[in-house]
């Protein structure tokens, strides 16, 4: 708390001094950069100090409960872009699961765990190639959206159904310990790892739900500096990467614990969790665009480099 107080005091005093030289717009941008730098330093410190997992969990739960009903509409183009990329033959071959074909009935079953499922982006992408999808999410509102979509598509709970819960808890709820929530053929986390306070724990806990030879796949952002610039990338690009976000996008940033992952980082997470056999890493497309993130008069779209990593449970 003391450190936070002095950070704020420093920003206020420096802003007052520089206000003599800067115009209003430039000063606002300067203050925003300072805020992000402070947050980035805290994220780095969190890697070396105790992280309050409960605080992160509740912040995520509250945010996604609030925005679940508008999520699909707000990010429709982004969701469609990701689904299209995941459904490409190249991506499905990379994942390497024993997908079902269009034969009826299927010659075998393949059960998907869609963890941090949200409204079901990953499930929608893989539904044509699996026989059963089970989602789990912290947010009860997201789970409701997921299950409403399944019902609207005429799918029974035995085909597509989500549970509210947290597999990363030290004591998972009894309803998450039922037999059907184990022995998955494949588990996928779509854009959820950067919200986990402990991704290594997440990989291990999710891996425990896989059958031997099962596949864990993670879709997330490549490592960046908080503005979207890859680490090690030059910053001589003007101010287009540093414009202020709108209120909802800023709130979403508060649920983020990691500014993406490098290939080396994610591989170590997989290996340490016992799901690193036959590890693979690929960049998805040429970047995913998130639309409508800017404040009025500011940036409207935000582009992120997205990867998929996959590994097999030993």
From TrEMBL:
<keyword id="KW-1133">Transmembrane helix</keyword>
<protein>
    <submittedName>
        <fullName>Uncharacterized protein</fullName>
    </submittedName>
</protein>
<feature type="transmembrane region" description="Helical">
    <location>
        <begin position="6"/>
        <end position="24"/>
    </location>
</feature>
<keyword id="KW-0808">Transferase</keyword>
<dbReference type="Pfam" id="PF13489">
    <property type="entry name" value="Methyltransf_23"/>
</dbReference>
<keyword id="KW-0812">Transmembrane</keyword>
<dbReference type="InterPro" id="IPR029063">
    <property type="entry name" value="SAM-dependent_MTases_sf"/>
</dbReference>
<dbReference type="GO" id="GO:0016740">
    <property type="term" value="F:transferase activity"/>
</dbReference>
<keyword id="KW-0472">Membrane</keyword>
